[in-house]
Amino acid sequence: MTTSSELNMPEIAMAEKEAGKWGMVIDQDICTGCQACVAACAMENNIAFVGEEDSGYGRAMHWIRIERFWEGEYPEVKMTNQQPMMCQQCGSAPCEPVCPAFATVHSMAESLNLQVYNRCVGTRYCANNCPYQVRAFNWRDYKRPEPLPNQLNPDVTVRRVGVMEKCTFCIQRIFKAQDQAKAEGREVMDGEFTTACAQACPASAIVFGRVDDPQSLVSQLKERSGGKTHLKELGTLPNVTYFNGG
Amino acid sequence: MANAKQKAEAHHDHHGHGEEHFRQKHLMLDPLPRGRMNEMVMESMLEKPTWKFWVVAGFLSFIVVYFLFYKWGVLIANGQGEAGVMRPDYWGIFLVNTVFWIGISHAGTFISAILRVFRAEFRRPFTRAAELMTTFGLVQAGFSIFMHLGRVWLAYWLMPYPNQRMLWPNLHSPLTWDLLAITTYLLSSTMYLFLPLIPDMAMARDRSTGWRKTFYKTLALGFRGTEGEWAHLRNAMNIFAFAIIPVMFSVHTIVSWDFAAAMRPGWHSTIFGPYFIVGALHSGMGAAVLVLAVIRGTMKHMDYFIRAEHFDAIGKLMLIISMAWAYFFFNDYMVQWYGGDMWTKIMLHYHEYGPLNWMWFGMLFCNVVLPWAILWNPKWRSTPWLVGFVGIAINIGMWFERYIIVPISVTINRMPFTWRQYEPGIEVPMGIGTVALFILLYMIASKLIPLIPVWEVQEGQMAHELKKFGRETVVSVSELE
Amino acid sequence: MSEQFSRRDFLKLAGLGAATTAVLTGCGPASRYVTREPYQEMPEYNYVGQSTYYATTCRECAAGCGLVVRTYQGRAIKTEGNASHPLNLGKTCARGQATLHGLYNPDRVQGPSNGDWDAAIQLVADALKNNKPDEIAFLMGMAPDHLFDLVTDMANATGMNAPVRYGALGMFEARATLSKAAEALFGQAGLPFFDVGGAQVVLSFGANFLETWLSPVSYTRGFAGLREAKTKMRGKLIQFEARMSATGGKADEWIPLRPGTEALVALAIGRLAAEIRGGSMPRAFSSVDPLDVAARSGIKLEALEHIAEMVAHSSGVLAIPGGAALGQSNGQAVAEAVLALNAFADNLGKPGGVYLSALAPSQSDYSRPASAREMQEFVEKMASGAFKVLFVHGVNPVFELPASLGFKDALGSVEQVISFATFPDETAAEADFVFPDHHGLESWGYQRVVTGTSLPVLSGAQPVVSPYYNTRATADVLIAAAQIAGGAFAEALPYTDEVEFLQTKVSALMNEADGSFSALDAATFMAYFQQHGGWWKNTDSRLAPASSILNSNIDAAEAEFAGEGEFFLVPFVSPTLAEAGANKPWLQELPDPTTTVMWNTWVEINPETAHELGIESDDVVRVISEVGEVEAAVYLYPAIRPDTIAIPFGQGHTAYGRYAENRGANPANLLSVHFNASGDLAFAGMKVKVEKTGVKRPLSRLEGLGVYGGEGIELH
User: Do the Cβ atoms of A243 and A206 come closer than 8 Å?
Assistant: First the structure.
């Protein structure tokens, strides 16, 4: 398997008609909103914490957030099923064509939306055009006092002020597993590795894997009835499928 | 070619008014000796600045240095967190100001190029003032968009330049189009400003000494006023006047595509191109009339060059543009509302009932109600301060419009969990800084270059004359070219 | 190269002569980050560029989940669950993930407060030697770990006071009540284990088992089993509580009831179900009048009947009594009434039912943490001067105990207070000496898994990184001090160090049958123990209780409430911070699952009530109980009874490092000293007053304006 991520420029804005490569299935019915995925993501991906004031003003850097809504009024009030939102790794991503600097590009090899941190100049157009609102911008140089930087994951870039970032489907884990498999002369096996959020989830509400492999767990879960992708009407071809209850 | 408008007016006014009345009213029919006129323009420029001028200039300089440049340093050092932007309002007042200043800059080209192409004679004394607005406004727009960038020190990456890694800007992105369009517009409008300036520079060169002489000599490019030079200049200006019009239309259309090409509710509207252009003209005309009122009120001899007739003419234009804007606003609203998209509906609802609905109503009042109420009356629209006031109101209203399109609309997206209201931060002082810089540039320009294109006025006056047909006094304009 | 000399700096210098532009880019803020350590400081056991993984045990709460920690060049990078550990099967909660922010917390205690470990050990030895054994007391954290065993051995040998274990989580879970009820019902003390995963209908009476209760990771897995219809129908969760917890938020039916009526409601459901099912009425349910219960609890009779219908007709009914329901004056009765429902559903010892948790290997009987009443006795002894030396480890009682218990004042009556705190917490601030223990990821140990799995588990811990600061294992300090003190102390701890102690204890398991691994010699066994992250038996060792509760009378009087005021107070443990998470910045930045508030304390008030009182969102209110008051901003919470307010526990530290200090308010300051029959604090039995302060302080929330749904949004 060749994994050279070749960027074919004119095709970037065009919709990919075929299914993606990596995908996720999220069962909202068993998601408890415990935030383990959020913490795991932060630890894996060197996400900065922003403090009380900024986090309360929409500047929290979470790559995955758990949404919940209220329905009805007391006493018939209902908290809707939690809805973890992260980058949906769209097949036809609205964020990609609008970046003037090519910092938001599509990986043809992995069918992922890439964010090239060191190419980003911070126009924030991608975030504006993301209908899922899952992009996080480095509004400041958020400090990690010593010795907290010891924890930083060496496989993930530490982002600096003025740069957009977002969920990568833990691409460093994908590459690590692929390198390992290649060294051993085999294909990556289903379940051999998973993203930090899926790994942590105590309810196993998040399942990650190859959606182009019909045998994988994620493909089989995806085939169940009742799954939906968010904002399907926009034609973004997201690779995260949600199951909500029942 | 006869000027139909003035002819009609002349016809209207003929009872009880003689030639004297025409001369008082119309600059074109009230010629002074060319030497005297040149002298007046030179005096208006060389007049020793009063203490008021210095106070205002000092105050503006302080604002520019502190609010614009110092705060910009703070912004760069600390990041965009200093501004009010956040999720979901990734774009804020910086973008509002960018669109606003580009809008202002439109009046210059509109007045100068379009009115020149259509030979609207009333344009003659204030084309320069309007063109300066274009250039100075674009400077502010450029500043505003650079303020907005998260890593402004890398802004050159947006430009196509040869590099080893073969990295190019993304031509799919409306922002790249935008950058190219604005750059083109800035360059072409600066050239278009400069061409009609050459004869005036030559005029000033011949009437000044010392460093000014050197300055004007350099800028006059050795212009002597020969027939050949005039012919070349006219040709160049004609080409530019025609060529810059599509540039002007394209610039604001492309600015509108920054929004219209995005898939956000409230932005994704096909009418945005013309809507933005009309909006730009609306605010631009408002700004132009305000500038004229100020120039007329503050500078020597300007009451000769800028007269009530000009306010009357621009007032009519403003009224028409206001109507056009109202139409496009209504059209845009209807199309969005009728589209039936849930999110767009919520967004429209948020405009009208949200916490900033006063801005929405304020926009309609300033952009439609006030101009319609005042400008329909010929007497009122001939009153400089009143038209100037309407100009201010329109600009406030148009700023509101952009504010509604950017941070307010962006509050509502398809992920209700993230809806959040924008609270401006450092953008406010920095925005004030751009206004101060705009005024300051104008003040400096008023001391350096003739704000009145005196040769154009003289040319117009040569072409106009009053003729008597029986008891009727009639204006006739001869074809110059 | 020095530590601050970065790779980019080097490149910058190297390229200085070549290209000016390169230097300009190099001057940007990018140059701050990448720092390189000199090779001579590289820790041992590491290959360059390769990660090393260590199995250990999570110390963030007492559940004892297994972790596998990824380390890279001597630094701990990421914690993940140990997939083979029977308790958590590879999963963790948010606190387990954020434990690294404890390890590398900028505000750790960096060395012994007297500056010298030899002197510190001498000081501990003197304290042991120069005081009578019964004047020495140990206060420890909730986890039944190796240190607890070590101190217990010491106490048994010398006549020293037995170590007391306490934690705020235990108080808010009302563990004493649970185990007392189990003892009364099943004739055996222990923690009941509720098999949520196997059940069909779960009635939870205030049990926040998806948040912090007993063993949240394990119970969350159970919840997923309840919901995920693999071999059965999708199970239902019905939650009875006055304030919707995160668990209640997941319930299919959330039923707000008047606090204090949980026992009555449980019995009424039992009675109605028994009526539906027919046959003789169990004695436990016979005296209750459903109509009266409906009136008192505020639940409609139809709703009770509807639930009773389910209980009567479904198989796999499970009822769980939770913390807030038990932490009331009638908590014991609540526990009994709820367990009676289980007996009625005939699920005792059956899949989807109630068991007694398996005892850990080498454990003879269940030892629970101290109840609040036992802590009161402890504090009284401190105050009376009965203790001359107090050692505190793994717990922060000044913060975690209700202020009204007077622990802080009583500390003054103890001659010598020695804290082994890793972080500069409130108790350490009051202590005479702080001899910091390692962080959990730097230390050896083992921990018994108390509940949450069917297998008996001894979870193993080992250092995954070398200690970052000049800290020392408390076990090592005690062993060394005991050697110096001599006599019975030296005899009780005849070890060279902590590791030898562990080896002795762990290798005793070598002879046990049916283990997850076996070895022929102690060294190999210990190596396996480290490698696997513990040792466990392979067979289900939960006890299946039998009970005659249905035939006994249950005195289900309504709970009594202390204090004057119009509001019931529901203090609950913050699901993300729990009792000790406030100093970890990423835990602070995690939104609360129900309110999405970060970084602060809030008061939940029903919007209707708030409107009547003229209180708006983010208004700071003063909550006044009979013993204290706290101030916090209001969160208008749509899912709370109008006569109830709720405050999360976890913030309000006056010490504990920069991220925790002076942030939020501590509802423990509101709690007055009233106990239930089991000795647990009646923490949910308070009535409080609410006063406006006129101050507004916006809460940091993740949620935006649109959380009440799409079109019908209130925009003002």
Answer: no
